[in-house]
Specification:
The protein has 158 residues and is α/β, with parallel strands linked by helices. Helix content is 32%, strand content 21%. It is globular, with a radius of gyration of 15 Å. The chain starts with 6 loop residues before the first helix and ends with a strand.
Length: 158
Amino acid sequence: MDKRPSWQQYFMQMAILASTRSTCLRRQVGAVLVKDNQVLSTGYNGSPKGVRHCSEVGCMREELNVPSGQMHELCRGLHAEQNAIIQAGLNGSSTRSATLYCTHQPCSICAKMIINAEIRTVYIADKYPDELAEQLLAEAGVEMFHYDMATGKMKKLI
């Protein structure tokens, strides 16, 4: 019998799959919101519904030479975490005490949304340069783990 993936590996693979729907020209990010090992919603980074994608009109952040991790408001798109939280709300699913699996560490804007959505645990596959996000999550008591997909090992970051 084949070895079954752990819950963390299973949901992180779903986040990676969600990232393939991204329309961002800079970074493809996927997220999965889970509660009691059941998927609540998924999200990926891209433009809002009915708005042209960056792949069609170009990347505002690239044109303005905005460094990664800064001035998040200068972007046409929503982040994967934002879309996952919004989709859970649209579908009537409470995010209280949920777990978020994300291909990348949340930025400070997403960290604030995670805190107010009462998400308790975040698993990430890759780091992102946003110390404020880490500080906010730590202060709010949200745990964050780095999950290494290659080895299956976890390291507590917060």
